[in-house]
Write a structure and sequence with these properties.
CATH class of the largest domain in chain B: Alpha Beta
Order of helices and strands of chain B: HEEEEEEEEEEHEHEHEEHHHEHEHH
Largest sheet of chain B: 6 strands, mixed
Largest sheet of chain A: 5 strands, mixed
Number of strands of chain B: 16
Number of helices of chain B: 10
Shape of chain A: elongated
Oligomer: heterodimer
Helix content of chain B: 25-40%
Number of domains of chain B: 2
Strand order of the largest sheet of chain B: 12-11-13-16-14-15
Structural class of chain A: alpha+beta
Order of helices and strands of chain A: HEEHEEHHEEE
Strand content of chain B: 25-35%
CATH topology of the largest domain in chain B: Aminopeptidase
Distance between the termini of chain A: 99 Å
CATH topology of the largest domain in chain A: GMP Synthetase, Chain A, domain 3
Radius of gyration of chain B: 26 Å
Number of domains of chain A: 2
Largest interface: A-B, 41 and 49 residues
CATH architecture of the largest domain in chain B: 3-Layer(aba) Sandwich
CATH class of the largest domain in chain A: Alpha Beta
CATH architecture of the largest domain in chain A: 2-Layer Sandwich
Structural class of chain B: alpha/beta
Strand content of chain A: 15-25%
Number of strands of chain A: 7
Chain lengths: 185, 388
């Protein structure tokens, strides 16, 4: 009988210790399970269709391509995403890119009716030059942004935080530019 | 227990976050404004954040220069610095919005020119205010004389002569700016200079007109300097010669551009209207006057359009290259020129076949001849109109 009592005591103590050790674990697991049950499943990201303008017909004009991006509640984030898609270039093989692929969007601000985009120096340094190339670069940026943000009316291009005279010696980009529809077909 | 520790953790995180924000804002500080008066200009220097960009606008009645700096934060609430010298009355600094600092220079004279540039370590913005544009051009030419070796300009006033006598040719790019580069390495600056030289010889010999080049050799001349040289020389026609390029290597042909009509955007007017409304004089019109030089180039718009069409027609005929037509855009160099002006793209250096052609001396002669024929036709039609 005494032997039995000892075994009961030992087993009892062992369970007690095991309980103390495991309790927090079980508690945590329980918490997680509770979370799994109560937390709604993450919403599927909202997809938005945007318009991107690329070089068409041997650089004679700009043509648009539709692309799906993940929508953002912040316009500046979405505008940055759109420009990053523009930099990636077209998927349609009859269209050509308008920005050097190394270009990065450093920052984007929206103030009043104007979108300020700050590009890395690659936009200037890696640009192939030529009036036609430069015209398409400038207006693919301006027209793409203004087509997707119709409430804005002007775009100021900056390089490394500064307004510049030109990208490659031709088109004046010192001041904010308005939409150019003559170049779109 | 867990709630308390969570709360403590969140507080710590918030504290860290606010420290970060304060630190970040500290980088946008604008401080240490100083100024110097010289006999021919006034220099204002202010310490600004490294990443700050600026936009400058000139406003009239009373004459002011407005500079918006962003991202930037004043370390003081507001400041007015009295200068009262030949060029600047006072400098006013204020926080326009959270990250924008507004700097207004009240100027002594409505006739002024300015230039703004940044210096590093410490990061500073330098604003120079000088006298009228004429003084600046004279100054610039005096300084550049030794390097550019400008010809003697006859003192004949523009109003006294009728017709077209003096042609300014502007070979694009030069020096440290090679322009576009072809697939086998041909540089635009070399092509444009060689065509300009051939063209200048043709105009002199076949039409007996005066011809000046904005650069005679492989040197860097800024876009502002090119326009100022043309204006100082009182040219009657300005032709800027370029070779084209693009991302699409198949792009080909010749194209001629003239300056599109330029007007300020609505936003600029709003900024100026707000600025005007706080000005002391009450009867200031809300519209902003266009910059004099834009008005002047607008005035020559129809001549520039005609000139472009005459040249485009003959150039595509003589070279046999695809005719991409006449287009207009905001060209930096054309904006500052006070005479009929166009920019000619003589072929795509980025197109392998056209690059090969552009290398040939015989092809460059064809180009020069095409431009010459177009120019001659334009002058004939201009003179005919004049004699009617």
């Amino acid at each position: 009988m005494k032997k039995h009592l000892l075994i009961y005591v030992v087993v009892g103590v062992a369970i007690f210790i095991a309980g103390i050790v495991c309790a927090p674990l079980i508690h945590e697991k329980g918490y997680q399970i509770k979370e799994w049950i109560t937390k709604p499943p993450p919403p599927a990201p909202e997809v938005k269709e945007v318009k991107l303008y690329f070089s068409a017909s041997e650089g004679n004009y700009l043509s648009s391509e539709k692309r799906k991006i993940i929508a953002s509640s912040e316009p500046t984030k979405e505008a940055k995403l759109i420009l990053e898609e523009l930099i990636k270039g077209p998927t349609n093989s009859s269209l050509f890119p308008t920005l050097p692929s190394q270009t990065e969007v450093r920052a984007l601000y929206i103030r009043g009716d104007c979108i300020y985009v700050d590009f890395s120096s690659s936009l200037k340094e890696k640009h192939p030059g030529g009036s036609t190339g430069e015209l398409l670069t400038v207006y693919s940026i301006v027209d793409t942004l203004l087509a997707n943000f119709p409430s804005q009316s002007r775009v100021q291009i900056l390089i490394q935080g500064q307004p510049r005279e030109t990208l490659a010696g031709h088109i004046d980009i010192r001041e904010p530019l308005s939409k150019n529809t003559d170049i779109i077909r | 227990m867990t709630r308390i520790s969570k709360a403590v953790f969140l507080c710590a995180l918030f504290l860290l976050f606010s420290i970060c924000i304060v630190e970040a804002l500290a980088d946008y500080r604008v401080e240490n404004v100083s100024w110097d008066s010289y006999s021919d200009y006034t220099q204002i220097s202010l310490q600004v954040p490294k990443e700050a960009g600026y936009i400058a606008k000139d406003l009239s009645d009373p004459p002011r220069l407005l500079i918006n700096l962003y991202p930037a934060k004043l370390t003081f609430p507001k400041k007015e610095i009295e200068i009262k010298d030949k060029f600047v009355q006072r400098v006013r600094l204020s926080q326009d919005s959270e990250h924008v600092v507004k700097i207004v220079l009240d100027l002594t004279n409505p006739e002024y020119t300015y230039n703004i540039f940044s210096l590093e370590e410490p990061s500073r913005l330098i604003i120079n205010i000088r006298g009228s544009r004429e003084d600046l051009v004279a100054d610039l030419l005096r300084k550049e004389e030794s390097s550019i070796s400008l010809p003697e300009v006859p003192s004949k006033k523009k109003e006294e002569k009728v017709g077209i006598y003096r042609i300014i040719l502007d070979p694009g790019h030069g020096g440290r700016d090679p322009g576009a580069i072809g697939p086998t390495g041909l540089q635009e600056k070399e092509v444009t200079l060689s065509i300009a030289r051939k063209l200048s010889q043709l105009i002199r010999e076949k039409m007996g007109l005066e011809v000046y080049l904005t650069r005679k050799d492989d040197r860097f001349v800024s876009l502002d300097q090119r326009a100022e040289i043309a204006n100082q020389l009182n040219g009657d026609i300005f032709l800027s010669i370029h070779a084209n390029a693009g991302f699409d290597k198949q792009a080909k042909g010749v194209e001629t551009f003239f300056n599109s009509r330029y007007t300020y955007g609505e936003g600029a007017e709003m900024v100026a209207a707000r600025e005007n409304s706080v000005a002391e004089s009450g009867d200031v019109p809300p519209e902003v006057k266009m910059i004099l030089w834009d008005l002047i180039q607008n005035q020559y718009r129809s001549e520039s359009n005609d000139l472009s069409h005459f040249i485009q027609r003959e150039l595509s005929k003589s070279t046999g290259l695809e005719d991409r037509g006449v287009k207009s855009a905001r060209f930096y160099v054309l904006r500052g020129v006070a005479m009929p002006a166009c920019l000619i793209e003589v072929g795509f250096i980025s197109n392998p076949w056209e690059e090969k052609e552009l290398k040939k001396d015989s092809f460059r002669t064809k180009i020069a001849l095409g431009i010459f024929n177009g120019l001659r036709n334009y002058i004939h039609s201009y003179n005919e109109k004049l004699n009617k």
